[in-house]
Amino acid sequence: MGGPAIFFHADAVEGEGKELVGRRSAGQSFLRGFLQHVPGDRVHALTQDAQAGKAFEKVARELGEERTLSVHNLRGDSDFTQAGTVFFPGPGYLSAPWRRQRYGADKCSLVGITHTVSTRRVIEGLHHLMLDPVEDWDAIICTSHAVHSIVARQLEEEAAYIQDRFGATRVPLPQLPVIPLGIHAADFAPVDGARARMRAQFATPDDALVVMTMGRLTSVEKANPAPLFIALEQVAQALQRPVHLWMVGWANRDDEEALHRDGAAALAPSVKMQIIDGRGADVRRNIWAGADVFTLPVDNIQETFGLVPVEAMAAGLPVVMPDWDGFRDTVVHGKTGFLIPTRMTGGGHPIGADLAQRFADGTDGYLQHLSLMQQQTQIDIPAYVAAFVALGDAGLRAQMGQAGRDHVAATLDWSAVIPQYLALAGELAARRKSARVRPAINPLQVDPFTLYGRYPTEQPDGTWVVTLRQPGDASALAALDKLNGRDLYKRTLMPPARMAAFLQIVAESGPITIAKAANGAKMRLDLAIGAALYLAKYDYLSITRPQTN
Question: 210 and 354, same structural domain?
Answer without folding.
Answer: yes
